[in-house]
Structures are given as C-alpha cells and as structure tokens.
Design a protein that fits this description.
The protein is mainly alpha-helical and about 150 residues long. The chain is built from 7 helices and 3 strands. The chain binds zinc ion (2 copies).
Length: about 150
C-alpha cells in the first residue's frame, strides 16, 4: 500500500488519502463510496470527498484488489450490493471473490416468462430479498459489459 502522491496533489487530497490509509478497511470503504454515489447520498467527509474527487476515487481503486473494484462497480448495476454478490457467486463462469450468498438466478420460463429464483430449491422471488426493490424483467447488466 502506497500513498502514491502526485506532486500536483492538493493539500485536501493529500490529507484525505492519509486519513483513508490510517482508517483502513479500504474494501468496505470503496463499496460504500460506490453505493452512496449511486444513491446520491453524501455521508461522511471521506466518502463525500471520494464521490466528488475522481482522482482520489481512481487512486482508491488502485489500492484495492481488482476483484474488489469490480464488485464495487458491479453493485451499482444491481439494486444493491447483496444482490450483486448473490448473482456473481451463482454464475458458474464467475470467479468467486468470497462470501457465501444464497444463489440468485434469472431465467426465462418456457423461453419467455422472466423468472428470478433464490436458493438451491429455486424458489421464485419477485422482490429483492435484501433491499426490497422490484426485480426487473431482464437480467441485471454485467460489469464486464458495462465497462466495454
Ligand atoms: Zn481528492
Ligand atoms: Zn437489492
């Protein structure tokens, strides 16, 4: 982990990055920043600075492992981080970062009716079990698609 200060860095950015390193928990911080950014929330001096300052957010993105950054960004494409994790961990081709969610899957019943299921028994769900959002009639976009 490096402070990696550019010479042109403003005193505010320098102070923020020092504070972030001192506080630690970068993985949960970056998840929270992307979540608040999506929700339009302004909570806490550090998170607010990261939402407003592209340079510091990019710096933080380099301080965490690539799968963590992908997860933080990917969660903004879903209704919530928990749903993103459940979908990511359910996809057979996806590298599992960690954690163990109930698998959530999207499918088309008879090739035309959108169905969301949860768990090994594939119980139908219509609302997100974590945030309560109504589930869409198509799969959430994937981060690899959103990046391209
Ligand atoms: Zn900054
Ligand atoms: Zn949700």
């Amino acid at each position: 982990m490096s402070l990696n200060f550019e010479s042109s860095l403003s005193p505010k950015c320098t102070a923020m990055r020092s504070l972030i390193i001192k506080q630690g928990h970068l993985n949960s911080l970056i998840m929270a920043v992307y979540r608040d950014k999506k929700a339009g929330l302004r909570r806490g001096e550090v998170k607010t600075h990261l939402i407003d300052c592209d340079a510091c957010l990019a710096w933080l993105g380099h301080e965490v492992e690539p799968p963590i950054l992908r997860r933080a960004k990917g969660a903004t494409l879903c209704c919530c981080l928990e749903m993103y994790m459940a979908i990511e961990e359910s996809a057979p081709e996806t590298q599992v970062v960690g954690g163990l969610s109930e698998p959530v899957q999207f499918s088309l019943w008879r090739g035309e009716d959108p169905i969301w299921t949860i768990g090994a028994r594939r119980t139908n769900i219509y609302y997100c079990p974590w945030c309560g959002a109504r589930l869409p009639s198509e799969p959430f976009p994937r981060i690899d698609e959103a990046n391209s």
